[in-house]
């Protein structure tokens, strides 16, 4: 609800409703539209936020189906009486008020459209590239963190998983946070999770992967593909676009499945 885009969307859609008068509200007097649209859109945004928390966090329904239809049904049942009362109050003497079935269909359709757009934007990762920290950024060149390293991200984890950060991995609309104590999935955009890890030196090597610098053991190349090898043995894929920058970091190069019998990796000379 505190996202800066919320008031912008509220204002833009309110102006559109007042000017265009969709769903039969063109018959309302102008003063009625000035009251109806800002109030209904504001109530819709508030109700949608509350219902998403209930459905996703408390009921655990996070996929588009059944999350979006369920939110739409709950929003329709809860908001239709309020919207009908408001429409009756502002419609004017002509009383051009949509019928209850019409109002229910309007609320349901708008809720489904909103959920569809939200899932599409989350899946596309729009905005993540713009907020990505520079690959291999020298911490001496970065401004000092205003908070304890990763404090904002750690606050989202259960107490037993709050430990030094290892890596982040995007999974659908969630981010799995790996620490030295374990892993936990949180409802968060990848870009926001990286911002929450402020103060921990790391690099995003793939659209879906961010790695803490201290967790990297070396780099591996096999069949033209580059991956980071972490100290816990995990291999994290590196996208083609990020591969040259990763290789330029001078990390120890590890042969795939290499083990010299002593548990130490076999290092290759830099090519």
UniProtKB/TrEMBL annotation:
Gene Ontology MF, one: DNA binding
Domain (HTH LytTR-type): residue spans on this chain: 167-252
InterPro entries assigned to the protein according to its UniProt record, in alphabetical order: LytTR_DNA-bd_dom
Domain of life: Bacteria
Keyword Transmembrane: yes
Gene3D superfamilies in alphabetical order: LytTr DNA-binding domain
Transmembrane segment boundaries: 36-55, 67-91, 103-121
Keywords attached to this entry: Membrane, Transmembrane, Transmembrane helix
Protein name in UniProt: LytTR family transcriptional regulator
Species in which this protein is naturally found: Rhodobacter viridis
């Amino acid at each position: 609800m505190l996202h800066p885009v919320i008031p912008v969307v509220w204002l833009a859609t309110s102006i559109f409703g007042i000017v265009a008068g969709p769903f039969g509200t063109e018959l309302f007097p102008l003063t009625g539209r000035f009251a109806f649209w800002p109030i209904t859109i504001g109530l819709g945004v508030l109700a949608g936020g509350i219902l998403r928390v209930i459905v996703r966090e408390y009921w655990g329904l996070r996929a588009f189906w059944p999350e979006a239809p369920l939110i739409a049904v709950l929003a329709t049942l809860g908001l239709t009486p309020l919207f009908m009362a408001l429409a009756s109050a502002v419609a004017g003497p002509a009383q051009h008020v949509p019928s209850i079935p019409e109002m229910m269909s309007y609320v349901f359709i708008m809720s489904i459209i909103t959920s569809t757009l939200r899932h599409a934007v989350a899946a596309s990762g729009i905005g993540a590239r713009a907020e990505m920290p520079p690959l291999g950024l020298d911490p001496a060149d970065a401004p000092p963190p205003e908070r304890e390293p990763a404090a904002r991200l750690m606050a989202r984890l259960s107490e037993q998983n709050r430990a030094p950060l290892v890596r982040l991995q995007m999974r659908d609309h969630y981010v799995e946070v790996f620490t030295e104590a374990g892993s936990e999935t949180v409802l968060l955009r990848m870009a926001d999770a990286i911002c929450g890890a402020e103060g921990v030196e790391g690099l995003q090597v793939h659209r879906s992967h961010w790695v803490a610098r201290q967790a990297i053991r070396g780099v591996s190349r096999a069949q033209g593909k580059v991956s980071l090898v972490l100290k816990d043995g995990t291999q994290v894929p590196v996208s083609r676009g990020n591969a040259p920058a990763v290789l330029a970091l001078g990390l120890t190069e590890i042969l795939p499945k290499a083990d010299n019998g002593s548990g130490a990796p076999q290092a290759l000379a830099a090519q």
